[in-house]
Amino acid sequence: MFLGLLCFLPTILLLLLLLLLLDGLPGGNNGFFNNNCPAVQIAIYAQMTWSMMFNAFLFAFFFTFLAKCENRSIQVVFADKLCINVKNFSSGRVIHDEQQKVLSESEDDDEVFQNSGVCVNVRCYDIDSAFPVVETHARIYMMDKDMKLHVVRIQKPNDDLGAMLYPSLPAEIVHHIDHHSPLSPPHFVDNMPFCNRSHGLVLRAADSSTGNRDEIVCPVCGETYGTYGRFRRHVRYARIVERQDGYPEENSHLGLEVPDKIPTITLDEVRQYMSHTMAEIIVVVEGIDPQVSGTFQALQSYKYDDICWNGEFEPCVKVKNNKFTVCMEAFHRVREPDHEHDVSSEDSSSLLDCQEDIEKASLPQLETKIHSA
Q1: CA 128 to CA 367: how far, in whole Å?
Q2: Nearest 5°: CA angle at 191, between 190 and 195?
Q3: What sign for the dihedral angle of Cα 364, 366, 369, 373?
Q4: How far is the C-alpha of 264 from the C-alpha of 191, rounded, in Å?
Q5: CA–CA separation, 92 vs 339, rounded Å?
Q6: What is the full DSSP assignment across 10-67?
Q7: Using CB atoms within 10 A as the burial measure, which of 21, 61, 107, 259 is most buried?
Q8: pLDDT (tens digit, 9 = 90+) per residue, 12-68?
């Protein structure tokens, strides 16, 4: 406040001087308003311009200090637990132990490789829908025990599109642990046959499966393919042509050995690897405060003890009286693997009771309930 008053003092003195000079000095002299005083006129103009710019900067500084847009990060909350499970990419459902055994014995391993995998799941929510956060996007990092930070690619929402979120509803952030992921055992990259290396880039196997790039390289002709299924069809067709034309087996597709099974990453292998290498997983949700156009970040850290293996988040959103309500107690709950997939009637009734409490609660009460849950 003293600094603000001090910056106005030169302006007040200058105004008094101008009033004196406008009235004229004794003897009829108009002072520096004569034609032979350009230096004084330029100095007064520069001083007035500097005073206005400094006052504008000071006002913006105090406005930003009072706005404190970085404090908006408290309204973005994260679930207490991080879930790592096996998911079906098409339906989004968790594949439990018995279904995982069936998939491991499936003959069409390329179909299993493309449509299912071990995933990291994080849940977040913007609790203040009256003042929503805009332009929200997410990032995930993994800190190993050597204190090195690794970037973790996000599959849902797609980080190729900015990993944009709509946090006014509870949103899940999903990372697929493929052979490029820093959460997968490193020997999987070496055991992937005919797979092109990443050369230090942070890649996703899903990009190759969907045709964004090709990572399976034929060692005979150099053609590249997105999946092992396409690569095997290429080898079968090339063998028919080469056998018909009488090609020798050496240095041709006829002598190329293609493995029958593709190594897949299992949940137990990920658990064993992360227990020895992972220090923490850091989730960053970044957004913009629309009132002052200020950017802020909400961060959440998960240690190994915060991971729920093969679990999934319970439903926490319900429509009631044409309005959706969110139960913050159910928001933090995780369904263990031994529970049934469908929500029981007891869970549904407790969800409704919790929603009624949330509808009646004010924002400060809601924050207290979140931190105590």
Answers
A1: 10
A2: 75
A3: negative
A4: 10
A5: 18
A6: HHHHHHHHHHHHHT--TTS--GGGSTT-HHHHHHHHHHHHHHHHHHHHHHHHHHHHHH
A7: 21
A8: 665 556 555 554 545 545 555 556 666 666 777 777 788 888 877 777 777 777 667
